């Protein structure tokens, strides 16, 4: 666990992460041998990364500045890739990324809670409202609380119809927006109402009793269906693909599949301090389904026509998506047969947070066994490039295993370890760092440097002055 936590911090010293002379952060997704890979502090990749906001929170907030100012136009459309040098994006003709833009709203909430800087939040709030208004109008014009219109995402394609990956992020953004609106004296009711509607839809119409799935929809939408054209929405359609469209729907969906980051928004809401955004029993069932269907001890018999170098042969890993109940599509979600360490760490941390400690540890051990220094560099986890940013999801393992989260706004230490007995863990806030944990059955916070003002500790749900 410590190996996964600390080894990926090498990304901070790699060419993946850059700083301008004014101190602002700009990043690639990863690094190639002769240059960067996938430019512009890509919002939907950096959604997963949890180390920078805790270790260097002021630097992390410069990313919010870029997203909500230079990258956002007057409509609220955000370009999910920033210019270098950082400057206003003038071309907003490409799709906004639903997961990246909505995830940014939860990250604003997280960064506010970590910093305790309500003046910073108040200054950014008009842009946050504008961004969320764009998302609602663009992808949820019927105000149902789910994203039905085609929405671009981290898989480099558009999902057609409501899906749990982006809908859980949407619900987290709505819940975070309602909380920020209340704190700033603004009207939170519209966000709360949409959140309630979307949660009902997610829990009743996107859950099959075992896991959450996508309802593929391309008709009866505001967006014209992708037929009668050779190219539509960033996807080429051959005559054969158009025939498949009539039978199965648009290319690159997952439909009845079990997607490993299918409840990403529920995890992001927890690590950002937003809290639970859906029925936790159903979320836990989805995580169990991932272990049942997507986790593989050996990949020797698994066919991966994409990038098998990430995990292969006698190695294990968590597949991006499987179709345990049938319904696999002829042209499914890209990368579905691959293994991504960033998703593995996200699932592992979420498992531990939901009480599935052994499952979470099993994923981490399996992942790090592939990076033991014999076959791959233990300080360089691959995806699209070396030192890939998504792997910084591993830092969430610290919060998961310690159950510790500090709220600088309320000067409150939340402590809910997943296991019983004494424990100790590192904690870094905006103004100091130290250790927190449980000693002889009582919670403690020991500051090593700087300050961590604690007015109260909430230990296993009970407030202690």
Structural account:
The protein folds into two domains: 2-402, Glycosyltransferase, CATH 1.50.10; 403-465, Sandwich (Maltose phosphorylase, domain 3), CATH 2.60.420. The chain is globular and about 65 Å long. The strands form eight sheets. The chain has a four-stranded mixed beta sheet with strand order 13-14-18-19. A three-stranded antiparallel beta sheet has the order 15-16-17, with no helix packed on it. Helices cover 37% and strands 14% of the residues. With 465 residues, the chain is α+β, with helices and mostly antiparallel strands. It contains 14 helices and 19 strands. The mean pLDDT is 96. Strand 5 and strand 6 form a beta hairpin.
The quaternary structure here is single chain
Q: Tell me the CATH architecture of the largest domain.
A: Alpha/alpha barrel
Proportion of β residues? Answer: 5-15%
The domain tally reads 2
How many beta-strand elements?
Answer: 19
Radius of gyration: 21 Å
Query: What is the CATH topology descriptor of the largest domain?
Result: Glycosyltransferase
User: Mean of residue pLDDT?
Assistant: 96
Alpha-carbon distance between the two ends = 32 Å
Q: Which segments are poorly predicted (pLDDT under 50) over 5 or more consecutive residues?
A: none
Secondary-structure class: alpha+beta
Strand count, sense and closure of the main sheet? 4 strands, mixed
Q: What global shape is seen?
A: globular
Keywords:
Maltose phosphorylase, domain 3; 2 domains; single chain; globular; 465 residues; alpha+beta
């Amino acid at each position: 666990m410590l190996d996964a936590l600390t080894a990926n911090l090498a990304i901070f010293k790699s060419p993946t992460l850059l700083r301008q002379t004014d101190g602002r952060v700009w990043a690639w997704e990863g690094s190639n041998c002769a240059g960067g890979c996938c430019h512009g502090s890509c919002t939907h990749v950096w959604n997963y990364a949890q180390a920078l906001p805790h270790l260097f929170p002021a630097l992390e907030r410069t990313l919010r500045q870029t997203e909500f100012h230079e990258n956002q136009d007057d409509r609220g459309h955000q370009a999910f890739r920033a210019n270098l040098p950082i400057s206003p994006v003038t071309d907003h003709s490409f799709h906004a990324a639903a997961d990246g833009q909505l995830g940014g709203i939860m990250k604003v909430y997280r960064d506010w809670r970590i910093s305790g800087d309500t003046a910073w939040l108040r200054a950014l709030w008009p842009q946050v409202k504008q961004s969320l208004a764009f998302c609602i109008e663009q992808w949820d014009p019927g105000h149902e609380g789910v994203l039905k219109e085609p929405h671009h995402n981290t898989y480099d394609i558009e999902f057609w119809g409501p899906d749990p990956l982006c809908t859980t992020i949407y619900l987290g953004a709505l819940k975070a927006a309602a909380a920020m609106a209340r704190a700033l004296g603004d009207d939170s009711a519209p966000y709360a109402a949409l959140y309630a509607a979307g949660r009902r839809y997610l829990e009743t119409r996107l859950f099959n009793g075992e896991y959450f799935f996508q309802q593929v929809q391309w008709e009866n939408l505001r967006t014209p269906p992708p037929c009668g054209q050779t190219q539509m929405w960033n996807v080429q359609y051959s005559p054969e693909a158009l025939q498949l469209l009539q039978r199965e729907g648009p290319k690159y969906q997952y439909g009845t599949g079990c997607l490993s980051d299918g409840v990403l928004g529920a995890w992001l809401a927890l690590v950002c301090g937003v809290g639970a955004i859906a029925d936790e029993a159903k979320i836990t069932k989805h995580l169990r389904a991932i272990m049942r269907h997507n986790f593989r001890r050996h990949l020797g018999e698994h066919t991966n026509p994409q990038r098998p170098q990430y995990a292969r042969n006698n190695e294990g890993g968590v597949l991006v998506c499987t179709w345990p109940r049938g319904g696999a599509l002829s042209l499914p979600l890209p990368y579905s047969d691959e293994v991504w360490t960033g998703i593995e760490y996200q699932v592992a941390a979420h498992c531990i947070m939901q009480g599935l400690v052994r499952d979470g540890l099993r994923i981490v051990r399996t992942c790090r066994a592939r990076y033991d220094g014999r076959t791959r560099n233990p300080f360089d986890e691959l995806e699209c490039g070396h030192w890939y940013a998504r792997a910084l999801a591993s830092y969430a393992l610290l919060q998961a295993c310690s159950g510790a989260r500090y709220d600088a706004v309320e000067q409150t230490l939340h402590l809910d370890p997943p296991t019983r007995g004494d424990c100790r863990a590192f904690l870094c806030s905006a103004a100091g760092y130290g250790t927190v944990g449980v000693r002889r059955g009582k919670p403690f916070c020991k500051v090593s440097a700087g300050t961590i003002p604690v007015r109260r500790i909430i230990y296993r749900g009970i407030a202690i002055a």
